[in-house]
């Protein structure tokens, strides 16, 4: 696996952790929870290598 691909997956995993952390902290606004989920879904699928 090339170094670029490893860095790509590390950056994606870092973004997923940040989004999950913000999702857990956000408890009042349903609209923002939905936005976090919409951004989170493609990143998780990318980490799992599902297109």
Question: Can you describe this structure?
Answer:
The protein has 51 residues and is mainly alpha-helical. It has one domain. The protein contains two helices and no strands. The protein has helices at residues 3-25, 30-47. Helix 1 packs antiparallel against helix 2. The longest helix is centred in the first third of the chain and has 23 residues, at 3-25. It is elongated, with a radius of gyration of 13 Å. The mean pLDDT is 86.
Key descriptive features of the protein:
single chain; mainly alpha
Helix/strand structural class: mainly alpha
**Structurally, how many domains make up the residues?**
1
Total of helices: 2
- Mean pLDDT score, rounded? 86
Order of helices and strands: HH
Sheet-strand content, in percent, reads: under 5%
Dominant shape:
elongated
State the end-to-end CA separation.
18 Å
Largest sheet: none
Q: What is the number of strand segments?
A: 0
Radius of gyration: 13 Å
Helix content: over 70%
Poorly predicted tracts of residues: none
Quick description:
The protein is an all-alpha fold and 51 residues long.
Layout of secondary structure:
Elements: H1 3-25, H2 30-47
């Amino acid at each position: 696996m090339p170094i670029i691909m490893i860095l790509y997956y590390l950056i994606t995993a870092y973004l997923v952790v940040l989004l999950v952390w913000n999702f857990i902290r956000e408890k009042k606004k349903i609209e923002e929870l939905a936005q976090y989920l919409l951004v989170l879904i493609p990143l998780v699928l990318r980490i799992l290598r599902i297109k």
